[in-house]
Amino acid sequence: MSVLQTWLVQALFIFLITGSIGVLLDPCGRINPESPVVQLGSNFTAVCVLKERCMDYFHVNANFIVWKMGHFTIPKEQYTIINRTAASVTLTDVTSLNIQLTCNILTFGQIEQNVYGITLISGLPPEKPKNLNCIVNEGKKMMCYWDPGRETYLETNFTLKSEWATEKFADCKTKRDTPTSCTVDYSPVYFVNMEVWVEAANALGKVTSDHINFDPVDKVKPNTPRNLSVSNSEELSSILKLTWINSNIKNVIRLKYDIQYRTKGASTWSQIPPEDTASTRSSFTVQDLKPFTEYVFRIRCMKEDGKGFWSDWSEEASGITYEDRPSNTPSFWYKIDPSHSHGHRSVQLMWKTLPPFEANGKILGYEVTLTRWKSRLQNYTVNDTKLTVNLTNDRYIVTLTARNAVGRSDASVLTIPACDFQATHPVMDLKAFPKDNMLWVEWTTPSKSPNKYILEWCVLSDKSPCIPDWQQEDGTVHHTYIRGYLAESKCYLITVTPVYADGPGSPVSIKAYLKQAPPSKGPTVRTKKVGKNEAVLEWDQLPVDVQNGFIRNYTIFYRTNIGNETAVNVDSSHTEYTLSSLTSDTLYMVRMAAYTDEGGKDGPEFTFTTPKFGEIEAIVVCLLSIPIDNSSGVLFCFNKNRDYSLFITCSSFLFRIKKHIWPNVPDPSKSHIAQWSPHTPPRHNFNPKDQMYSDGNFTDVSVVEIEANDKKSFPEDLKSLELFKKEKVSTEGHSSGIGGSSCMSSSRPSISSSDENESAQNTSSTVQYSTVVHSGYRHQVPSVQVFSRSESTQPLLDSEERPEDLQLVDNVDGGDGILPRQQYFKQNCSQQETSPDISHFERSNQVSSVNEEDFVRLKQQISGIPQSCGSGQMKMFQEVSAADAFGPDTEGQGERFKTAGMEAVLDEGMPKSYLPQTVRQGGYMPQ
Amino acid sequence: MDLRAGDSWGMLACLCTVLWHLPAVPALNRTGDPGPGPSIQKTYDLTRYLEHQLRSLAGTYLNYLGPPFNEPDFNPPRLGADTLPRATVNLEVWRSLNDKLRLTQNYEAYSHLLCYLRGLNRQAATAELRHSLAHFCTSLQGLLGSIAGVMATLGYPLPQPLPGTEPTWTPGPAHSDFLQKMDDFWLLKELQTWLWRSAKDFNRLKKKMQPPAAAVTLHLEAHGF
């Protein structure tokens, strides 16, 4: 606006001046050139010539000329005074596209008066157009297109020129909005070569593209073949015939085709080999198609020699190939109803519908034949995919065929063995693992090659029964994936049964997860027994429904009110653990976390208080009172310092006395020391009363005395302890069970310890990674299982590497043979592998987190299937169902509740905590 | 009548223009010298293409003329169309033609026919028909150029128009509208015959010009097919 205003004012001024001199619109001078166009980056010189009249009137000459670019005054250095009337200005390296250049004179009083103005336009000359090409859409005029090159910033005209040798055609001028193409005004004549080129021109120059010479027929884009239709053949189910109508251009040129097809719903096209469609035609038979399948086709064409352009694709047309007989036999399997009556069994035959690519048509029904040894055939025609038949205990051969409109499939043959049939030859090395969001199963082929395999699977749950789904695999297959919907965090029991000509082989099962997750609930820990310096913790295996994965290990966290939390890792096979080196008369809080491969989950916190006096102290009191009242079977032990009394029978006392005086010291030669807590007090500090968890107010003198007297081998123990500490100080950290944990570090309470000697046995046998001589006598145990949470992850060193340590330990406890423990370790050593398996699967016939008893039971079930008449595979799944085999069984749960109930009673009698009780099963929750 | 007189002048002018332009034909062979083979083949293709074009054009034009000209069995005697170059010729004579004569006859015939055709174009009523005729004329001119190109390649001079043999479409005053239509009919018919003949001519030339090696190759290919 301001520019416009300036111009208007100047124009008015000039008008007034010129008016005053009597000449309308006669400027005081002129600029030459008048309307220049210059190339960007070049120099430009303009000359302003003043008129004499004006010079006289204003008393000025060329020296008074001032050049301005817009409002900007151009420095005098760029001016050249040519003579009295003329001065020039030179602009170097013009970069603006549009410059307003004015010539002004400086009149009396330094007043600038405009003389003349020009607009300087700059840009670039056109570049030579490149990549000129033409296309002749059939029946339309020819269109040529090119690459115009760089931006010129100027109005640039493109002209397409064309000619024959004998004649020039009219120029084709581009429209402003499409400067890169032009459609000529005439229909091109085929078979006559023409020459075409483009001229690009603007104010700065004119340039011509390379000439192209071509026959327009070689630039043709034919019209699309139309009315594409597809028809099938009853004689051949693998072909479809396509017909179409060619465009008129086929009268002039020969065509080739491009035919594509795909099955309906598929996304990628297949192509008919181009050499099969390299000549003009109006039909084509597509071969090697699948029967009874809908195919979609499309076609396009171009000049046979490949010159020119492909037509657009035709509209898609579809057709269905004719049916063929089913190309495969249905998957075929059976279940025997476990509830069998005498001499007969109810067998459910079941099969899978064929997938469309094998059914090759609409399946109209199935035909089943049953043959018993030396008896005639029984035929059934079934529409469903199952059939229940009542069979005798003899061997049967069953065949199944699927039927469609064209024919029958081959027969699928299954042998239902007689009752007394002994299944053998199971698959070996069964593994199951998730991969690419699928659950894969692989196995090693049995020595006898099977006809096929049957895979069955179901979700293990306490809430719902195991309803198996199944699939069939060819006898040559040894790995496959479960084809069926699988949920994450669910435990699947997968059973693989090889099927031989004479009947099914032994099934083998495995548990697997498609994807593990941390448990949805943590284990509820409670005390089984609380001593002055130790506490036996126990818990139940997590129900399979909350496990969400394989429980790899537990971590027990415990702390006093004021102390740091200590973490202990426990193998997942355990359900008990003894915390030792506790401080008496102290409140402890303990909780437990269970870990799968994907993470862990804490259970509720439980609190308990260690008593002030140990049992022996009480016994001492009792024994002291015997002479006073030895006729009575019951002793009254009264402690003045506490508010409770203990009622104990003497007989039980005597037994306990024996145990405490001659304790069941574990055999150190069969033990490992896995890890030492850094908090373990050093030897010179060793004192049961002076442990880290002890509180300063502890003043029970009698305890010290009795323990000191009882402990004959105390100094030796300390010695060995010291040695172990020296050797093992570097192994601190999590006891993850990796490495040296092997068979010796794992324990099996269910096998090794009887119920009676649980006290000492369990204390030692539930110690997981170090069975430890020092635990022989409970108070001196420097909490060998105690680990702090975030310490070194350095692998556990195997104590087998240090036989001298063991030797030493042996010497220490040499005379004290505790046979059950040895036996127990021997049993464990016979296990193939006891360290937890890191992979995503667990073999069911390998003890892992599974309760051993359950495992044994499962094994019996599996191997027992064929023997028991009338209880086939079905029975196995029923019995295995509801996590009976792998999870804590319902029976076990019942027991657990019972135990919990008993404990609750006990708790009432022997308060362990001062806090309100909120948790069932004897647990306490701090409020 | 004035109009007709004007027409014949126009045709004369047209012929002159055509013949004037054609001597500049060497330019046809701008892409080097691959021999006459390709251009003969192209000319042959062009005659077939023109034949195809004419088929639809004649149908439209005869319908435009109306009955009886558009009746399939209409076969009038050739009256008053003597000035049109005759395509029909004795087989023996045709066989005995040398290449130069054969090409010259074609060239001269299409030169004349093109001029007559342009006269036809001016009379056509509908835009579509005019457009078809215009395109056909352009194509026919392309054919003339092609023949000229072949002749140039073979080193034959183009026939010069002799003043005495100018094709003059001078129907005379007796020409009625019907006879005029008859002339149009014969023009199209003669064009068709010429295109057939040309196809034969160029096919013959093509075979003659084909190098023997190429023939062997072709034979092998055919065998392999």
Automatic annotation (TrEMBL), chain A:
Residues 224-324, 329-427, 518-613 form the Fibronectin type-III domain. GO terms for biological process: cell surface receptor signaling pathway via JAK-STAT; glycogen metabolic process; intestinal epithelial cell development; negative regulation of neuron apoptotic process; positive regulation of adaptive immune response; positive regulation of astrocyte differentiation; positive regulation of Notch signaling pathway; positive regulation of osteoblast differentiation. Its main location: membrane. Keywords: Cell membrane, Disulfide bond, Glycoprotein, Immunoglobulin domain, Membrane, Phosphoprotein, Receptor, Repeat, Signal, Transmembrane, Transmembrane helix. Belongs to the type I cytokine receptor family. Type 2 subfamily. SMART domains: FN3. It comes from Microcebus murinus (Gray mouse lemur). InterPro entries: FN3_dom (IPR003961), FN3_sf (IPR036116), Hematopoietin_rcpt_Gp130_CS (IPR003529), Ig-like_fold (IPR013783), IgC2-like_lig-bd (IPR010457), Type-I_Cytokine_Rcpt (IPR050379). One of its GO terms (cellular component) is ciliary neurotrophic factor receptor complex. Pfam families: fn3 (PF00041), Lep_receptor_Ig (PF06328), LIFR_D4 (PF25552). The gene is IL6ST. Residues 784-796 have a biased composition (Polar residues). The keyword Phosphoprotein applies. This is Interleukin-6 receptor subunit beta. It is found in: Cell membrane. One of its GO terms (molecular function) is identical protein binding. Residues 670-691, 731-767, 784-803 are annotated as: Disordered. Residues 1-22 form the signal peptide. It is a single-pass type I membrane protein. Residues 741-754 have a biased composition (Low complexity).
Automatic annotation (TrEMBL), chain B:
Belongs to the IL-6 superfamily. Residues 1-27 form the signal peptide. Pfam families: PRF (PF06875). Keywords: Cytokine, Glycoprotein, Secreted, Signal. One of its GO terms (biological process) is cell surface receptor signaling pathway via JAK-STAT. Gene3D superfamilies: 1.20.1250.10. Forms a heteromeric complex with cardiotrophin-like cytokine CRLF1/CLF-1; the CRLF1-CLCF1 complex is a ligand for the ciliary neurotrophic factor receptor/CNTFR. The CRLF1-CLCF1 heterodimer binds SORL1 (via N-terminal ectodomain); within this complex, the interaction is mediated predominantly by the CRLF1 moiety. The tripartite signaling complex formed by CRLF1, CLCF1 and CNTFR also binds SORL1. GO terms for cellular component: CNTFR-CLCF1 complex; CRLF-CLCF1 complex; extracellular space. InterPro entries: 4_helix_cytokine-like_core (IPR009079), PRF/CT (IPR010681). This is Cardiotrophin-like cytokine factor 1. The keyword 4Fe-4S does not apply. GO terms for molecular function: cytokine activity.
